Amino acid sequence: MRLHVGCAQWTHQAWPQPSRSKLEWYASWCNAVESNTTFYATPSRSAVANWAEQTPSDFRFVVKLPQLITHERRLSGVEVELRAFLSAIEPLAERNHAVWIQLPASFSPTDLGTLAAFLHYAPRGYRYAVEVRHPAFFDDAVAAGQLERVLGRVQAEWIPFDTGTLFGRRPTSYAERDAWMKKPRVVRRTRALTAFPIVRYIGRDSVAETIEGWTYLVDLVVNWLGEGRSPTIFLHTPDNVEALNLARRFYADVRAVLPDLAPLPEPVELDPPTLF
C-alpha cells in the first residue's frame, strides 16, 4: 500500500520559514507536491535536478504542463515544446509521479479529438493525468464516457478537483470569496481509471468543516488501497494556511483505518535562531 499526500505548493508565507531549503523542509511534512510553477514556464534542468536532490527517492511531484501547451496552443502543434518540457523534468526520474495536463474550462467535449491525438503522440515512459473543467464532462454521461475512453487508450488518469465542501455554503471571508470566483463548481467524481488515482480536494477556512467534508474521501482512499491502487491526494484550503497540517491529518485519518500503512516522515525541526 502506498498513499501520497501533499499541498499545492512547498512554500507559503504563513508557514514556518526554515533557513535550509524550503523544499527539503516541506518534504519532511508531506510526500508529494503539486508542481504549479511549471505552468508558467518550463524550468531549467539544473533547477529540476536541485528539486530532486532536496527530496527523498519516494517523494512524488505531479508536474503541470506549461500554459503555452495547454491554454495558448490548446495541445495543437506543441511537439517541440512538449519534448523540451519532458527533457527539463528528466532529472526527477522516479520522483515524477505524473505529467499533469490541466485544460481550460473552454476545452469541451468537441475538443476530445485534439486531446486524443496529443495523448497518442505524447512520448511513452511518462504517466499522464488530465484535469478538465468544462461542465459537460461532469453533467453529461456520454461526454464523460467519451473522455474516459480517450484516457483509457493510453492509461491516463482523470484528476477531479473536488470543490463540494468549498461550495457547501456561502463564503465567509475574502479567501473563500476569491476561491468561489476561481474554482470550478462541478459534480464530485469518485471513479479511478488507473492504479494511480489523483484527487485535488479544497475545503474552507474552517479546519473542522474541511475535515468533515473529506470523510467520503478517506473511505474512498481506503477502498482504493484495498484494491491495490496507489492514490495521491492534494489538500487545499482557500488560503492554504493550514494545508500542511491538513495533509498530515488526512493521512492520519486513513492510517487510523489501515494501521499497516507506513507513517509519514517526522517533520524536521526548524533551525534554532542565531545571534549573528
From TrEMBL:
Matching SUPFAM superfamilies: TM1631-like (SSF117396)
Residues making up the signal peptide according to the UniProt record: none
Pfam family of the protein (one): DUF72
Entry-linked PANTHER family: UNCHARACTERIZED PROTEIN YECE, UPF0759 PROTEIN YECE
UniProt name for this protein: DUF72 domain-containing protein
